[in-house]
Amino acid sequence: MSDTRRKARAGRQGEVAQHAVELPAGVTAADWGLERVRVQNPSIRSYLGCIRLLEEVLDSNYAILHCSPERLLKIWRQVEQVCQLMRSELLPTLKEPSTIPSLGDARRHAEASFRALAETVLTAMERYDHSLRADQLPEVRKLLCVSIGKIHAFLRDTFGEIVANDPRSRHDADYFLSRRFAQDIEESEWLYSSVYELNELLDGLVQACSAEFSELLPRMRRERMVPPEPDWEQTRKLLDSLLGDLTPKLKEVLSLRGIRIDDMESLEAHASSLSTDCRSLLEVYAVGREAIEQLKGVGGPTLNEREQRVKDLISCHRVLSGRLVKLLTRLHTSLRDLAKHIAASKAGIEKRRALMLAKDLVEFRPKTDRPVRGIR
After folding, report:
1. How many helices (H) and strands (E) does the chain have?
2. I need a labelling partner for 376 at 20 to 30 A (CA). Which of 105, 190, 234, 236 fits?
3. What share of the chain is helix, strand, coil (3-state, %, to 5)?
4. Domain boundary among 177, 207, 235
5. Within a domain: residue 1?
């Protein structure tokens, strides 16, 4: 490890120790740990999911009144989904008492605000069926103009109060209502989305390689011959996929500022070794097949010359197949190790991503135009 990275790791560890969670008198770490996992983290995720869904259709009143019926239906269904999520997922977390007095007060205030919102806004929207009739569209446009702003204000205001009173937070409510916090959340979601996609890609590639190599490698070890072109075609496709799909995805994840030092070092090593082994396999096979075909075409007028050509062919097959087996085995092992590492990293990010409360402890790269997966 370089001195620079060693210092970066030490600095980050120092920050973690410095910003340990401070709990009120009488509240144990076990008490808060249980509440954090059972209530607070799900509440934060529910808030963020609702806010994200709503902000995707947070159009101006003019746009809602004059948009196409198709756009109106999209807005309606998304707002309807937010209302359902608030009742089914968010409200139960607001009803829960808290071991942290100020957080308990914030939840009670949020629950009271939700009750008022439900009586005036949600109930009015829930009178309509999921499938709107054409004659209902004009009144729905007006209802959305009134409702979306109130729902958004409730989510933003009560969310800011709840996370500001989370003992992990070192910010006041204004930060959580600011554009900066919204950007932090989007950046953390990009990190999770990228690692999630990488994990899915790796799962598929590991399964495909395991299925292909489980038959190819034993045969090559037994026959000690370079496979003919038709038998090698599926392996070639897998190698091309590793180079064309996996390697760029690894580089994309490596470019994210949220990747930790240990993960970065491991990913860099795997990306380099996988790329090298794939190219080596493609080159060794191509050169080997060319050499074998040339040896096959070389004739000899005497029996000794023909016997020598056969010996050369056997030797060429043996050397090349041994090299291919070694490279394929190493590639398969490296690919499985990488899959395990990414799965572990994904699990760690899942634990951290809903808690973007200690901003200094994690860095993220801004998201520009990529779609983000929903809150999970």
Report:
1. 15, 0
2. 105
3. 80, 0, 20
4. 177
5. no
